[in-house]
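pls ignore typos typing on phone
4'-deoxy-4'-aminopyridoxal-5'-phosphate + seq
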Amino acid sequence: MENATLWSRRESAIPRGLGMMHQVFAARAENAEIWDVEGRRFLDFAAGIAVTNTGHNHPAVKAAVLAQLDNFSHVCAQVTPYESYVRLAERLNAAAPGTTPKKTIFLTTGAEAVENAIKIARAATGRPGIIAFGGGFHGRTMMGMALTGKVAPYKTGFGPFPGDIHHVPFPAPYLGISEAESLLALERLFKVDIDASRVAAMIIEPVQGEGGFYAASPAFMRALRDICDQNGMLLIVDEIQSGFARTGAMFATDHAGIEPDLMTVAKAMAGGFPISGVIGKADIMDAANPGGLGGTYGGSPLGCAAGLAVLDTIEAEGLCERANEIGDRIVRRCEAIRQADKGLGDVRTVGAMSAVEFVIDGDATRPDPARTARIVGEARRNGLLLLSCGVRGNVVRFLPPLTIPFGQLEEGLAIFEAATKSA
Ligand code: PMP
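k done
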């Protein structure tokens, strides 16, 4: 089988609306390596978009899922529940930031977790309004799109969206947006757009993922916590991309030392098995009436088994500490490249949520998405799978599994460095 043949079959069988970043069809994967259908090896700096933090086919995750498969694969938690659902909820309740008693519901995808967080926030407050941030990404369902702060390609042609969603700028000093400006925009919003007393919640990614790996500072997160408390709004933190050790802490919110009212989780929580969740303060989580929440596949037994093994692995392999070491190595290498490359405008990381931004002549206001795409392509030709992101399409994000051997990390960074030189 060849990639080119499969790609032409893909073109006639699958709609173009489903973007596919690499014309590389996977055959097999192990930890941080993927082999394609032609037998070529690639280093994986994408981790299935921040999902395989524990690597492809981690032995503990695989064993847990295989053991579960021997028992049953689906009975539906809403029909006959199972202990692993309860246990995973208990463990996440204990791991979530803050000391208020928590409850957790499991769903299937990130977008579905976001949908449910909004439902719960509205049920708990009796208010309609939701505030989200420019550049944010919250999924491709109707509410997910409405909350997402980027029009093309996510919203183009798909409206109308649910109403009463309001966006304010996300603080990103590199883009010229200060924290003070964001806070002022919130204040203005309450004057010109929606009374604060009608806002159910604000939702924020502590480190924007698709938007470009811009981090909200701990001080900014604390300021939002205060504004929510003063106005009876809930703070929803979307940890779908930043959670599960990626940022050097179990959750990125831990760096801010605040307690969210609700938190959405997915992706890395089960190392590749489709499960997501909403973790929140118990009284808020109980606001929705029995039967109001759920879904056929929510909290699949395979996802719960994998999720428990992922939590064990993060602890056993010290993946938070490892994330910091990985981020340090990425930053060191990229800062060295930047010395001689004016087009590498910014290098940033929180733990191992690392990214570089390509601009023209070191000018932050002149993004260079064309060079970014060339670098991603050149890296792929040399055996490294990278992902770009950012509202301006000029950011390369590094998302290797947190279990990657350091030798392979350096090997991948060398391929990236060579790609920046030739593209
Ligand atoms: N929120 C964030 C922060 C995300 O990064 C994503 C996925 N990239 C989503 C929500 C949506 O998750 P899913 O694709 O599983 O629906």
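The two ends are 30 Å apart (CA to CA). The first strand starts at residue 26 and ends at 30. more later
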